[in-house]
Amino acid sequence: MYYLGLDIGSLSCDAVLIDEEEKILTTAVVPTGARNQEAIARAKAEVLLQAGISFEQVTATIATGYGRERVDGRLAAVTEITCHGRGIEALLSGTQVLIDIGGQDSKVIRLDGAGHVVEFAMNDKCAAGTGRFLEAMARALQVDIYQLGELDRDATADLTLSSMCTVFAESEVVSLIADGVEVNEIAGGLNRAIASRTFGLVKRVAPDLSGLSVAMSGGVARNRGVVRALSSVFGQEVAIPPEPDTVGALGAALIARDRVNLSK
């Protein structure tokens, strides 16, 4: 039997297909764009084509993410908080604090060490530090967003941006460039600002990180500069799963399997 998880976010639509043994068979990440139902159809088609099966062979589908109600033929729609908790437990067992930074919001989830959500804090009112924010900063620096993660490696200054508002931060970056500040130093300042803001969110659910295992999911987890800055602020390594973008979709697929087996 096959189980499909779909995570419809603001920047990408992620799909994961698993089998009865919880083995990940195929994954897909496609841009959401302006028409999320088209993105859902493309993500579905990609994982099914890679696996060589038809949608009729899928036993159950769980949808998550902000566009979860748009998925036709789903068994259920489940919040991304629950799905990320389930997904990270399968990949990095024992995780107790999960940071999920997506396209337009940030979440910190406190887990019991077995994938169950204890508490969470969420910033969905502002795009500061999210994928949208990093896209804007990449434009201001005139680099590809995928380069941002390595730009800060040789930075030595203790520069930190004074504003995390996307509009003001972009203006500040432009001013720093005009003042002759090196791009790597600005990138380092961006990463420290994101880490500082995220740490404030973390403190709301885990005031003391001592002895707690911390992991990160979401597309921003692919930015190694942000991960390094977070690890420095936390005073410990932040673990990253192999495909951080698809953690929510994996959790959705696993929940689909769980629910089908419970109903037998």
Describe the structure.
The structure is a single chain. The chain is of the alpha/beta class and 264 residues long. It has two domains: 2-86 and 246-262, Nucleotidyltransferase, domain 5 (2-Layer Sandwich); 94-240, ATPase, nucleotide binding domain (Nucleotidyltransferase, domain 5). The chain contains eight helices and nine strands. The protein has helices at residues 36-51, 80-91, 131-141, 148-151, 166-178, 183-205, 224-234, 247-262; strands spanning 2-8, 12-19, 24-31, 58-64, 76-77, 97-101, 106-111, 117-123, 214-217. The strands form two sheets. It has a five-stranded mixed β-sheet with strand order 3-2-1-4-5. Strand 6 and strand 7 form a beta hairpin. Helix 2 packs across helix 8 and helix 6 (183-205) packs across helix 7. The longest helix is centred in the last third of the chain and has 23 residues, at 183-205. The radius of gyration is 19 Å and the shape is globular. The two termini are 14 Å apart. The relative contact order is 0.19. The model has no long low-confidence stretch (mean pLDDT 90).
Task: From the structure above, extract its key features.
264 residues; alpha/beta; Nucleotidyltransferase, domain 5; 5-stranded mixed β-sheet; 4-stranded mixed β-sheet; globular
